[in-house]
Amino acid sequence: MQKILLAGNGITARIMYGYLLHDTRYQVEGCVVDDDFVSNAVFKDVKSFKLSEIQQHFPKDKVELIMAVGYAQVNQVRQSLFERLKDLGYHFHTYIHPKSTILSDKPIGEGSILLPGALVEPNASIGRDCFLFGNVVVAHDAVIEDHCWLAAGCVVAGMARVGQASFLGVNATISNKVEIGAHNIVGGSAFMTRSTKPNMVHLARSGEPFRCSAEEYAKYFGV
After folding, report:
1. Which of 12, 121, 168, 198 qualifies as a cystine partner to 181, CB 3.0-4.6 A?
2. Residues of the chain with pLDDT under 70
3. Are 31 and 57 in contact (CB under 8 A)?
4. Dist. CA 16–CA 181, nearest whole Å
5. pLDDT per residue over 105-131, tens digit each?
6. Helix runs in the chain, H state only
């Protein structure tokens, strides 16, 4: 059974703990966070340890880490913690849920997480420290660069590329051969048909308020 430290103690850590609790391959030993966040845990099931003291409690050859930090500051918080723990010599475990499907012969990047229903098609590439929620599809020959977050139901079509540390919201779709620049935010349900520059925001407009009330809409459109 692999001993695991969760890097983070917030909502994402609570989610990952829920998965690992039902996965007999792992035993969670605790959480590691920046010193100022030890007392900020959103769940108390496992103890939080200070980053400055982690080597005293867990030698790097005795545990592996699973990245459990969300996408704050367009994934920069997660990337920073990942790199600092790597500098200390720790190895990040690549967590692939048994109900995800990997058809690519390219290795999944260190520390990436694939949750149930995630599909990685032939010749697709997943970088380091990426988070793929349930039912994400990364199609053939697509590339997901390091530190990206793909929310549930995202589709990255064939030969598309998602730049480093980008965030794709729920059900976002990247069309074939489209390149999303680094540090982009692509909102939920957005359909991207053109390549983007770095540090851009693209939101779907389908959630904007309609010009009439719900009562009026139901009356005139039969809903």
Report:
1. 198
2. 206-208, 210, 214, 217, 221-223
3. no
4. 28
5. 999 999 999 999 999 999 999 999 999
6. 11-21, 54-57, 76-87, 214-221
Residues, the chain: 223
Nearest CA to 13 out of 58, 177, 37 is that of 37
92 secondary structure, DSSP code: B
Quick check: 112 and 128 in contact, CB under 8 A?
A: yes
| Residue where the block lists tokens 């007392």 | 39
Topology of the domain comprising 95-201: UDP N-Acetylglucosamine Acyltransferase; domain 1 (2.160.10)
Instruction: Classify 153 as helix, strand or coil.
Output: coil
Please tell me the class of the 2-87 domain: alpha beta
Q: Where are the domains of the chain?
A: 2-87, 95-201
Q: What is the pLDDT of residue 205?
A: 75
CA 8/CA 66 separation, integer angstroms: 9
Q: Which residue has the tokens 């229903």?
A: 117
